[in-house]
Specification:
It is a single chain. By secondary structure, this protein is α/β, with parallel strands linked by helices. The chain folds into 3 domains: 129 residues, Periplasmic binding protein-like II (D-Maltodextrin-Binding Protein, domain 2); 98 residues, D-Maltodextrin-Binding Protein, domain 2 (3-Layer(aba) Sandwich), CATH 3.40.190; 187 residues, Orthogonal Bundle (Lysozyme). The protein is built from 19 helices and 12 strands. Strand 8, helix 6 and strand 9 form a beta-alpha-beta unit. Helix 11 packs across helix 12 and helix 15 packs across helix 16.
Length: 468
């Protein structure tokens, strides 16, 4: 009996093995490989986007304990699209960033205001372009007086020029040398482009090379620098991503296209770069001087008022500088007075008894801006809400609402300041203002007003230590 049971068991095992083999063979398709898990799927599964970010004003830095910067905000928007958190590794030079780009096993994106150069594209895989720049030679302004300020590449031979090692600037200069130009250039891994601009401002070196967006931001902090000439054609900024991340790359292109179509990229560019177009050397020098001679007297009042009304004190101080240049006895021909230039009527409504009293004026102005914020739609983003409130502070809430109606008429977003800036100047044209509730307004003024305030605020929040 045991013999039969044993034989039957062997038979059952053989049949089972045959069936398993037959099923496995049927399921197998010759030439079909097991698909590798994509980088995009890995990112979503781990719920973090691992990025390398250059610590600089044009890219990423910390303000009031909060991370900001053009490229940071762009990356943060992309991470929200993916539904993941940012995991940031900070670097201080382009060379450091490119070291991470050599092995991106654990890094998803390297972001360092990197241009797509021919040499780099042979070494790295770039994602979509998000900004256009040109390389510019930046020199100390005092060289204009000594007539040694360079006007073209041929004038560089007798000057001390330093740029960052492994930057696109080094590539450009080496290419010019091969073309026969005599250039006295030093390449360094010790300093970032911003630090080199500081060295130019102090005239420790004659010149450096910088992308146009980096120069435009830093000229506020270093007014002694000046652009000599452009040294490259237009170049595209882009992030470096892993070479085997085709799915991530496709998703990134699709997202950026949609982000741009919705006007969000324009809004971001406007937030970080709109005010940089209006640099005035004399005004900026005076601003730095008055930071030392005037602001210190009233800074505690700006801080106290800012805390009470939940408004950045640097913004209040910037409004005051735009209004009165921090002169507590300032008076305009229309009769507005004091640090915050309040009208007699507005001061009475705010409970300000003496417009020439610095503390009363500052707290009154802060209260007025706070009131304006309450009338700004909750649908408007936080930073734009401040801009709308400032626009209303300058021109009146009624005219801002008229501009919002015009924005809708032209298919623009009435809740985005960069779109409102487009239509505000139209309030000066009869064919538009005659059909609006509040009529004519000098629409250019609030545009310049807000840009100027954000210019001053940016300087106050990023002023180099040596200039404080």
């Amino acid at each position: 009996m045991n013999k039969y049971i044993y034989t039957f068991s062997i038979f059952i095992f053989a049949v089972s093995f045959f069936i398993f083999g037959w099923v496995s063979h049927s399921a197998y398709t010759p030439g079909k490989k097991i698909e590798k898990v994509s980088r995009l799927d890995i990112i979503k599964k781990r719920k973090t986007l691992n990025i390398v970010l250059l610590n600089s004003p044009s890219t990423y830095y910390i303000r009031d304990k909060e991370p900001i910067g053009f490229e940071y905000d762009l990356l943060n928007s992309y991470s929200k699209h993916l539904g993941v958190e940012l995991n940031i590794t900070t670097v201080h030079t382009v060379k450091e960033a490119l070291e991470y780009a050599k092995d991106m096993q654990d890094i998803d994106i390297v972001s360092a205001s990197l241009t797509k150069t021919q040499q780099r594209e042979e070494l790295y895989n770039f994602g979509p372009s998000y900004y256009e720049v040109q390389e510019q030679v930046i020199c100390n302004r005092s060289m204009l007086k000594s007539k040694s300020f360079p006007l073209d590449v041929e004038n560089l031979s007798s000057l001390s020029l330093m740029v960052g090692e492994a930057t696109s600037y080094e590539e450009t200069l080496e290419s010019l040398k091969k073309d026969g130009f005599d250039i006295n250039a030093t390449y360094t891994s010790d300093y970032s482009t911003q630090e080199l601009l500081s060295m130019v401002a102090k005239h420790e070196i004659d010149c450096t090379v910088s992308d146009s967006n980096v120069y435009a931001i830093n000229i506020r902090y270093y007014p002694e620098i000046a652009m000599a000439f452009t040294i490259s054609a237009r170049e595209q900024l882009a992030w470096i991503i892993p070479k085997d991340a085709k799915k991530l790359e496709a998703d990134m292109y699709a997202w950026l296209n949609e982000f741009n179509q919705k006007g969000k990229l324009t809004q971001l560019k406007d937030h970080y770069y709109s005010y940089v177009l209006f640099f005035d050397y004399y005004n900026t020098k005076m601003f730095y001087k008055r930071i030392k001679t005037r602001l210190s007297k009233y800074k505690k009042y700006f801080q106290e008022a800012g805390k009470k009304y939940d408004i950045p004190w640097t913004l209040l101080a910037s409004v005051s500088y735009q209004e009165s240049h921090w002169n507590p006895k300032a008076k305009s021909f229309t009769g507005v007075r004091g640090l915050m230039m309040l009208t007699r009527h507005t001061a009475k409504l705010l409970g300000v008894k003496n417009r020439l009293d610095p503390k009363e004026s500052i707290f009154g102005g802060a209260k007025h801006i706070n009131q304006m914020l309450k009338y700004v739609s909750k649908d408007i983003d936080k930073e734009d809400r401040l801009k709308f409130a400032l626009g209303a502070y300058n021109i009146g809430l009624g005219h801002i609402r008229d501009a919002q109606k015009l924005a809708i008429k032209f298919g623009l977003n009435p809740n985005v300041w960069s779109d409102i800036k487009i239509v505000l100047p139209l309030l000066e044209q009869k064919k538009y203002y005659k059909n609006l509730k509040y009529g004519y307004a000098r629409g250019e003024e609030p545009v310049r007003y807000v840009d100027s305030i954000y210019d001053y605020r940016n300087i106050l929040e990023n002023i180099p230590k040596e200039l404080k």
